[in-house]
TrEMBL record:
Designated name of the protein: STAT2 protein
Organism: Promerops cafer (Cape sugarbird)
GO CC terms: cytoplasm; nucleus
Coiled coil: 25-59
Domain STAT transcription factor DNA-binding per the UniProt entry, residue ranges: 157-294
Amino acid sequence: LEDLQDAFDFCYKVHYQPGDERNGDPEYLQELQALQAKLQNLDRQRREVLAQMQQLLGRSETLQELLQQELGAWRVRQQHLCLGGPGDTNLRPLETWFTELGQGLFQLRQLLRALGDLRQKVTYARDPLVAETPLLEQRLQEQLTHLLKSAFVVEQQPSTPNAGKRPLVLRTASKFSARARLLVRLHDRNHHMEAKIHIDRFRRFNILTSSSKTLLAGDSPQEGLVCDFQYLVGTGWGPGAAAGPGPGGDRGATSSQGPLVVTEELHLITFTLAYAYCGLELELETTTLPFVIISNNNQFSSAWASILWFNMLSSDPK
């Protein structure tokens, strides 16, 4: 396209002479016909490139729908695994597929920018780049945004080192860990992407250690982009929790249905990530499965019952 455009632009500047003085010159008319043919060829090639991009975006939408189904199935397997059932939660295949689709979309984004530069140099009446490029850019932006937001997942749900098959029940003053992963393994090494966590729900739960970390590639390229919070420690309940012991232990904050027993309180950790790559900046967010925080072992059975009930009745952590 650039070569065709440069050839047309050169011939236009050399041969085209507006005015009536040469309209009867057969040689000049022949030059105009050749110039018109170059413009028609340039226009046809531009339209073909745009049509190919439309086709590729259609294919990527179909592929992305399949990836969302695969990701949904992975979430179900992870949920079952957290409840003690069998399941393969290896993220490597999903990470490969998400990354390759992301690469393709970012390449299309670069091509659209290049087309925009060509349009700035040469344009004409009914130029397809003027009419169609903005719509393609919008469609591509929507696809990239959807892909990246769904690609930020919790790879390791909150658990203590000796949780065994009973994660999601944590104890105050005990270390626990959680890890999020970005399945689109594309990042700018000159830009540090920071991931932050916060725990929300009825209680104010304080965390020792830092609540933010830089998203890092693993020791090898195959390890992906992860933010690993390995030494989180809950120091207990902060202000805002309703005091007073209950039948099964502590009582928690008051909800619309009245005071909740601690073992019935479900909490979430939310990861947020300031993503930036090739000029695209997004705020990504993902949440853990709900978990319960207890202060002594006799609360464990009731807490695990709350975890089981929620996961059997709902697939949406929020």
